[in-house]
Amino acid sequence: MSDERLNHGPAGHGVEYERNDLGSGGVFGFLIGLAITGIVIYFIVHAMYNYLDRYEQSQMTAMSPLSRPEDSAMIGARQIAPNYAQNKFKDNGAPLLEVDERGQLKTFVLDQEKQLNSYGWVDEKAGVAHIPIDHAMDLLAQRGLPVYQPGKANPDGAAKAPANKAAK
Question: How far is CA 24 from CA 21, 27, 29, 31, 34, in A?
Fold first, then answer.
């Protein structure tokens, strides 16, 4: 070990503290300023997001993101010319993008519902018709399903349906 001693001087002599501390007024002033700045920033960001949401809603179209911008001008004209895309691109043979997905889906679903709830011919020459699904379920509940009989199979292995059943 070393025989060197550290001499800090006699106890209580030359030891002092800083006499100019930060006052509590400065700390509270900083905290109040920080809170006010945070509130102002909150309202600025909130107002900016509201403005951007309104702007996006006003600019929103029902166009596919894959369609070209120059075709977006034809959205209102589709009511006048519903086959605009088919007429414009009929010669190139490429598949067409859907420009009105919601409208096409709505039309598809309505057509399916119409067919499920109406009478009509599937193939008039062959005598195949369709009937409303509710009526078909009632007939099926009354008459039952055709039953496979092991000894009376067709040459192709399928059982014959009774001849008096209504075709769907």
Answer: 9, 5, 8, 11, 15
Euclidean distance between CA atoms 71 and 96, whole angstroms: 12
Region 26-30: mean pLDDT is 92
| Residue 123 backbone dihedrals phi, psi, to 5 degrees | -145, 100
Long-range contacts of 14-23 (CB under 8 A, 24+ apart): none
CA pair distance 3, 74, nearest whole angstrom: 97
How far apart (Å, rounded) are the C-alpha atoms in residues 81 and 108?
19
Token representation of residue 129: 């018709």
Lowest mean pLDDT segment, chosen from 23-32, 36-45, 152-161? 152-161
Q: Which residues contact 78 (CB under 8 A, 6 or more apart)?
A: 84, 99, 100
Coil, helix or strand at residue 129: strand
Report the pLDDT value the prediction gives residue 142, as an integer from 0 to 100: 92
Q: What is the pLDDT of residue 20?
A: 75
